[in-house]
């Protein structure tokens, strides 16, 4: 049987799980675009998903070497083998707050444009695009699924390039592309197992505290943190929602924010992590500039710290998800409270110190 689905972002954190769900509902074979340097990892992951000892090139997961930064996805003549594809899932992106403008532009913006071009050439029935709530940039107020082009500034090139990529998707939707845009907030590990693919975002705080004595750990606090919400959702919620919505016609033409409707504010978030770690944490007031300089010094000494994360300690945006709540009503799919699974995230980090913070680029 020829591939029915084309997916980018395999063998990544979310992409691997989406492929697993597609196969579970017999939506395969799934053609997965992979960069050549990740071929061995992709074969290993594909075998794990299918439950085989080794990758089978004729199995339900078909690996195609290519690159979204190239026209035609770098597939060359192999693109003709995908004429049978009726659905595209575009998850590949650089998920890195410190990404350079050049890399973000190449992967997030031009890459999305190339995937859109291929989807249109294939005349697909559905296009699924994974964006981010943080296309909001530093929008001051409540950001809903109806918001996008608001004249906002951005914390970093990651946010800006994901914003520009989503604009491209909306332009194609206006021209008739049957698409759904999924905007997760900050995605952390699985709420049941704690499993994650890399330690970024809130994990920098967790690991910073873990590197300090339990009797007294220090966390910086900056002006505005007391009223700032940190919107976090677990991987399984995001994958459950994408899996469910991708099977429903009601989601065509919709933007869906997969966020926590009742997120913790920064002080409560820090307290929750501290309790799960069993650490006594003292918050030390400082300016954002000084805190970033301190994190750069820690980075230089090999400590897991990312100065860019501090921009989310005074982030002015709050997120609402009326479309998600409407479209997911009756499905039983909703994000669990952070306090209900933070202990599993902590246990996983303690058990897996080998996992890195690097993005797959």
Automatic annotation (TrEMBL):
Coiled coil: none annotated. It comes from the Archaea. Residues 7-242 form the Thioester reductase (TE) domain. GO terms for biological process: long-chain fatty-acyl-CoA metabolic process. Transmembrane segments: none annotated. SUPFAM superfamilies: NAD(P)-binding Rossmann-fold domains (SSF51735). InterPro entries: FAR, FAR_NAD-bd, NAD(P)-bd_dom_sf. Pfam families: NAD_binding_4. GO terms for molecular function: alcohol-forming very long-chain fatty acyl-CoA reductase activity. This is Thioester reductase domain-containing protein. The lineage of its organism: Archaea, Methanobacteriati, Methanobacteriota, Stenosarchaea group, Halobacteria.
């Amino acid at each position: 049987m020829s591939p029915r689905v084309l997916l980018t972002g395999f063998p990544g954190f979310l992409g691997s799980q989406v492929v697993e769900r597609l196969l579970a509902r017999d939506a395969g074979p799934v053609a997965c675009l992979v960069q050549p340097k990740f071929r061995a990892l992709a074969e290993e992951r594909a075998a794990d998903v299918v439950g085989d000892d080794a990758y089978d090139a004729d199995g339900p997961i078909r690996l195609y070497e290519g690159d979204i930064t190239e026209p035609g996805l770098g597939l060359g003549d192999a693109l003709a083998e995908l004429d049978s594809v009726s659905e595209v899932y575009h998850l590949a992106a650089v998920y890195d707050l410190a990404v350079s403008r050049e890399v973000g532009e190449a992967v997030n913006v031009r890459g999305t444009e190339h995937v859109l071009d291929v989807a249109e050439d294939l005349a697909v029935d559905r296009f699924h695009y994974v964006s981010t709530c943080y296309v909001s940039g530093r929008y001051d107020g409540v950001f809903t699924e109806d918001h996008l082009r608001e004249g906002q500034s951005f914390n970093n090139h990651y946010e800006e390039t994901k914003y520009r990529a989503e604009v491209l998707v909306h332009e194609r939707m206006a021209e008739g592309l049957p698409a759904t845009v999924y905007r997760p907030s900050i995605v952390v590990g699985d709420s049941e197992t704690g499993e994650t693919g890399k330690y970024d975002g809130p994990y920098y705080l967790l690991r910073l505290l873990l590197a300090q004595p339990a009797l007294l750990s220090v966390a910086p606090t900056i002006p505005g943190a007391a009223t700032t919400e940190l919107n976090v959702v677990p991987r399984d919620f995001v994958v459950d929602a994408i899996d469910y919505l991708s099977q429903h016609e009601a989601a065509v033409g919709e933007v869906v924010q997969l966020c926590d409707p009742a997120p913790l504010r920064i002080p409560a978030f820090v307290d929750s992590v501290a309790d799960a770690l069993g650490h006594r944490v003292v918050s030390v007031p400082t300016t954002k500039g000084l805190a970033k300089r301190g994190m750069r010094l820690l980075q230089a000494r090999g400590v897991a710290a990312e100065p860019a994360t501090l921009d989310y300690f005074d982030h002015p945006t709050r997120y609402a998800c009326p479309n998600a709540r409407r479209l997911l009503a009756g499905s039983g799919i909703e994000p669990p409270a952070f306090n209900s699974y933070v202990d599993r995230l902590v246990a996983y980090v303690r058990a897996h110190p080998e996992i890195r913070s690097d993005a797959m680029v």
